[in-house]
Amino acid sequence: MRRSLFGAFILFSAAVLAFLWIFQSIFMNSVYRGVRTFETVRCGTRLKETQPDEIEERAQELSEKYNICISVYLIEAGRGAEVVKSHTNTFCFIHNTASDFMLNQLYSEAKGSGKNMREISLSGDERKDEKDGSGIIYTVLSDSESEGEYMFLLNTEIYPLSSTVSTMRLMLVFVSVFLVVSAAILSSFVSSKMSRPAVEMSIEASHLALGNYDVHFDGGNYKELCDLADALNRAAAELSRLDGMQKDLIANISHDLRTPLTMIAGYSEVVRDIPGENTPENMQIIIDETNRLASLVNDMLDLSRLISGTQKLNISEFSLTEAVRETVSRYSKLREREGYTLDFEYDCESEVRADKTRILQVLYNLINNAVNYTGADKRVLIKQKVTGNTCRIEVIDHGCGIAEDELPMIWERYYKSKEFHKRSQIGTGLGLSIVKNILVLHGAAFGVKSKKDCGSNFWFELNISKISRENTLNSGENLLSE
Q1: CB-neighbour burial class of residue 384 (10 A; exposed 0-12, middle 13-18, buried 19+)
Q2: What is the spatial distance between Cα 120 and Cα 133, in angstroms, rounded to a whole number?
Q3: Per residue in 190-231, pLDDT tens?
Q4: In terms of C-beta density within 10 A (0-12 exposed, 13-18 middle, 19 or more buried), how is residue 412 classed?
Q5: Which of 108, 343, 371, 458 has the fewest CB atoms within 10 Å, measured from its CB?
Q6: How is 374-405 classified by DSSP, letter by letter?
Q7: What secondary structure letter does DSSP report for 133?
Q8: CA angle, 286 as apex, 283 and 258 as ends, to 5°?
């Protein structure tokens, strides 16, 4: 940033100096001549528009203002008489050397168009000599001859500017040195002031990269840097939160893995070392704990594939109603000995186009979550509602509910409510994140409605491809009772 600003200031200074040098060395004489010519023509136009009784006063005013010699002749009966004379220059052609013949010639040249301009040398010779300078004689005739015709002669001098240009070039040398030095100092100061917040944020970012989340980014007084600092502060806060959740995940997974591994090792040793302990009950415990380990590993692999985008959907058309019915039935058999009740209510048979395996995974995770958090009634309600071309699945429990400030975070990986830390219920905290990523891949709407101590209602919607209207005799079917 400092090098860029320094280079920009130097280039700007060089461009300004180049313009000044070119202007004063090449175009100075042309601009000076053009300005004097324009002023002379402008004075002639104003005199021509002036009333006869005000000509003398106006001529004196313009002569002093623009340093122009002015003579006004009244032409009557073919002869001219000078009525106004305003002399300001050291040498003036129309006042010092103009003869009657020359005056008649000037009048004749202007008679056709009402005006004429002639350039002469300052010595009086009509040939231009740049070394001696030159003069401009501008002749203007009045339009009306009712009160006599007026001829206005204006004479201005154009001096050679070689000495002036040399002087200005010498001044430009000092101006150039001053401008370059000033640009260097100013660019160094401005770049240092502007880059300081960026340098400080770079240092803080390096600390953040090393895992120190207790950092603060300050953009100073610059809006763009302040916006960047705010974004980095939010990123640091989010990284700190995710890091804490990831550490909790590692701790929970370590605990969840250690417990079944300990039980598997313990029961395996019992079966191996103690005669008669090779019973179906002990083997079932080993199988159950092995399945729990497999479930943990599968959850982590599923989430990794979903987040990385490597998980591809296998789309097919299937009955969503039947899929929910089968899932509830299979799940209920695992919970029947614990006294849980699962009800499924639906209005019609609905078919959808989706990845059946992944949708079943969504259903299992949502039902498992509801069972884990359901209230004392141990009842979970699954509802299917068809509205237009959309089929909505709701999984409702009557448990402790979710605090309002936690609702936006429950879909994130690693997140687990701090208030309910019970391993057998909470699990790894990956279930809802898996649900979210699967539904996002399907482009499905989903959400949750929950209040503290009032239970939760998790829902998702899929577009239906076919509806089969039937009598809902099975609506409200109790698939498992206590």
Answers
A1: buried
A2: 9
A3: 777 777 777 788 888 888 888 787 888 887 777 878 888 888
A4: middle
A5: 108
A6: --TT-EEEEEEEEETTEEEEEEEE-SS---GG
A7: B
A8: 160
Look at the alpha carbons of 231, 237, 243, 246 in this order and tell me if their dihedral is positive or negative.
negative
Q: Is residue 481 predicted with pLDDT exceeding 50?
A: no
Residue length, the chain?
A: 482
Position 118, amino acid: R
Helix then strand then coil, in percent of the chain rounded to 5, is: 55, 20, 25
pLDDT tens readout for residues 126-141? 444 455 567 888 999 8
The partner residues of 120 in beta bridges, in order of sequence, read 135
Q: Which two tokens stand for residue 462?
A: 């899929």
Q: For residues 361 and 363, what is the distance between their CA atoms, to the nearest angstrom?
A: 5
Task: Show contacts of 44-48: CB within 8 Å, 24+ apart.
Answer: 44/115, 44/138, 44/140, 44/152, 44/154, 45/140, 47/72, 47/140, 47/152, 47/154, 48/140, 48/142, 48/143, 48/152
Q: What six digits make up the tokens of 9?
A: 């200031």
Closest to 71 (Cα-Cα) out of 88, 83, 80, 62 = 83
- pLDDT at res. 395: 94
Two tokens, residue 224: 């763009």
CB atoms within 10 A of CB 180: 15
Structure tokens at 288: 């159950």
The Cα 342–Cα 344 span in angstroms is 7
Token duo for residue 416: 């687990």
d(CA 329, CA 350) in angstroms, rounded, equals: 18
- Distance of alpha carbon 59 from alpha carbon 95, whole angstroms: 15
User: In this model, does residue 261 exceed pLDDT 90?
Assistant: no
Q: Which of 234, 77, 197 is nearest to 148 (CA)?
A: 77
